[in-house]
C-alpha cells in the first residue's frame, strides 16, 4: 500500500521546480577536492565550507533538500547554530548519505559493490530522530570491455533495494542512486545500453524487496559519451538518449528523477537538464541532485579564504537558480 506521508515528502522534494543539493561528499572525497586547491584537509575547514554553502541567502528558493554526510549532519555554524536548524529555517529538508562507500566486488576485477547494510536500521532510526526526512545510497558501475558484469549489477541493485526497504520502514524517502560512471572512451550508445540494463535490474530488485515506488526518487546518470570518447554528442542528442532510456526503464509510479552531475561542468549539466525537460512531458518530475555541478565554482572562489565567502555564495546562488530554471526546459531563459 502507498504510504501517503512518504509519497508527499518525495513529491515535495521535486515540487516548484526545486532540486536537491548534494553536499554529502565523504571525508576522503571532500579532502581530495580541498587538496587540489591547497585548502587544509581538516574538520574545521570542512565545517567552514559547509557553513558557507548552507547559509547562502535565498538557497531555499531553488533547493528543497540538502544531502549531508554523517559528519555534516552533526555540525554547527561558527555561532553555534546546528546546521539542521539553519536548513529548517531556510525551508530545506535534510537528507543523509547512508552508504559506507564502495569495496572491490570479489571475483570481478575492477568492479565495486557498495557497503553499509549492516546496522543500517539503527542508523536510519538515529538520523530520522535527528530530523532527516530522506536518505541516499550510491552504487557505481564502470563501463569497460566486459563491465559492468551481471554480477555487479545484481549485487548493487540488491543492496539498493534492501536500503530502500529499510528507509521506508523508517519513514524516510529513499534516493536510489545507480551511477554509470563517465570514465572511459565508450560511446553514448554504449552508455545508453548499460544504463538501460542497470536500471532494469535495479527496478526488478526494488519490486522484489517490496519497495513502494511512490516513495522513491531515482538519482541516475544522464546518458553521455565517456569523457575520453572522441565524439562528444550535442546537448539535444544527450537529452533524447536520456529521455528514451528513462522512458524504457523507470516505472511511472516513481516519485521523481533527480540527476547526479557525475563530473560534468556546471553549465553543461544545466543545459542538458533543460534539454531533457523539453518536449513531450515525461511521466515524472525531472530535476537535479547535483554535487559538483553546483558547488565547484563556489569552492574554487572560496579556496579556503573567508574573505571570498560572499563571492562564493553568489556563485552558488547562480548555479542553483540556473538549475531551477532548467527544470522548465529550454526556451524559458
Ligand atoms: P555529483 O553531482 O558531483 O555527481 O554528486 C552527486 C552525488 O551525490 C554523488 O553521490
TrEMBL record:
Pfam families: Glycolytic
GO molecular function: fructose-bisphosphate aldolase activity
Membrane-spanning parts: none
Pathway(s) served: Carbohydrate degradation; glycolysis; D-glyceraldehyde 3-phosphate and glycerone phosphate from D-glucose: step 4/4
Domain of life from the UniProt record: Bacteria
Example of a GO biological process term: glycolytic process
Family membership: Belongs to the class I fructose-bisphosphate aldolase family.
Protein name according to UniProt: Fructose-bisphosphate aldolase
Organism: Arthrobacter alpinus
